[in-house]
Write a structure and sequence with these properties.
Helix content is 38%, strand content 19%. By secondary structure, the chain is α/β, with parallel strands linked by helices. It has an eight-stranded mixed beta sheet with strand order 3-2-1-4-10-6-11-9, sandwiched between helices. A four-stranded mixed beta sheet has the order 5-12-7-8.
Length: 256
C-alpha cells in the first residue's frame, strides 16, 4: 500500500496566490495525500479557495483559527491531526511542479532516510533556476546538513518546503513550532528535527517555486527583522552545540 503523505499549508490573507498553490497540490502525480489547510484568521477571500477544494477533492481538509495566531500555531494545529508517514510543508503563496511529492518520496524510501532536501526555484520578477539543480544526488552527513541549514547561501537552508520529514520522528520527540518566535521559526524546527535524525539525502530535484512578493516575510526590512534573526540564530547554534556535548559524554562512557 502506498504511504500516506501529509501536506500542511498555513494560510493568512493569500487570496491572490492560493488558487494556484492548491491546484498544484491537487495535480500531484503522487495521489495518496492528506492535505491540511489552516486558515489562520484571514480577512480576505482565502477561505473561498480552501472551501472550494474541500468540496471537490476529499483529500483536502480545512481547519480554522478564529483570529491570526501566527504561522507556527497554524502548523502546530495541522500537525495535531496529520496521519501521514511523511510530512511536507507548503506555503500558500508558492506552487509545485507535478512530481514534487513523488520525487521526495522515492528518495526517502530508497535509502530509508530521515530527511530529504531538494533545491528550489526562486520567483521574484521571473523564475530563476537554482545553480544546484543538475548536480548529482548524494547522501549527507548530519554535519553537512546542519552546515547547509546555517549557511546564508545554497539550496539547503532552514526552509521547510524544500524538505520531507518523517512523522514518526516528529511524534517520538513531540516536535512542534515555537509560537513565540516570529522569524526563522522554520529553521528552529528543522534544526530540532535534524539533531534527532541520522540519515540525510540531497535529492537534486527543483520542483518547488518559491514566490517572493511584497507581502513575503523575506521582503521585510533587514533592520526590522535583525533582532529576531539574531535571537533565533543564537538558539539554533545552542541546539547544534548539544550534539558535540552529547557525543563527548557518550565517548567518555564508552558508548561510541
Amino acid at each position: 500500500m502506498q504511504a500516506l503523505v501529509s501536506v500542511i499549508i498555513p494560510v493568512y490573507n493569500l487570496a491572490e496566490y492560493l488558487p494556484r498553490c492548491l491546484a498544484s497540490v491537487a495535480a500531484q502525480s503522487y495521489k495518496n495525500l492528506q492535505v491540511i489547510m489552516v486558515d489562520d484568521g484571514s480577512s480576505d477571500e482565502s477561505r473561498l479557495s480552501m472551501e472550494a477544494f474541500t468540496r471537490i477533492d476529499g483529500r483536502f481538509t480545512m481547519l480554522t483559527h478564529a483570529y491570526n495566531r501566527g504561522v507556527s500555531s497554524a502548523r502546530n494545529t495541522a500537525l495535531a491531526i496529520a496521519r501521514g508517514k511523511y510530512v511536507l510543508f507548503v506555503d500558500g503563496d508558492d506552487w509545485l511542479e507535478p512530481d514534487y511529492v513523488a520525487h521526495f518520496l522515492a528518495d526517502m524510501q530508497q535509502g530509508d532516510y530521515d530527511l530529504v532536501v531538494n533545491p528550489y526555484i526562486v520567483e521574484k520578477l521571473a523564475a530563476r533556476e537554482p545553480a544546484e539543480r543538475h548536480l548529482s544526488p548524494r547522501a549527507l552527513t548530519q554535519r553537512q546538513f546542519l552546515d547547509g541549514v546555517r549557511s546564508p547561501m545554497g539550496q539547503i537552508r532552514g526552509y521547510l518546503w524544500n524538505k520531507m520529514f518523517r512523522m514518526d520522528l516528529i511524534r517520538r520527540y513531540h516536535l512542534r513550532f515555537d509560537p513565540t518566535v516570529s522569524m526563522m521559526e522554520d529553521e528552529l524546527f528543522t534544526v530540532e528535527y535534524a539533531v534527532r535524525a541520522e540519515h540525510f539525502y540531497y535529492g537534486g530535484y527543483a520542483d518547488y517555486h518559491y514566490v517572493i512578493h511584497a507581502g513575503s516575510a523575506t521582503a521585510d526590512s533587514p533592520v526590522k527583522v535583525l533582532p529576531q534573526q539574531i535571537l533565533s540564530l543564537h538558539r539554533v547554534n545552542r541546539i547544534i552545540a548539544t550534539i558535540g556535548r552529547d557525543r563527548t559524554l557518550k565517548e567518555s562512557e564508552g558508548e561510541v
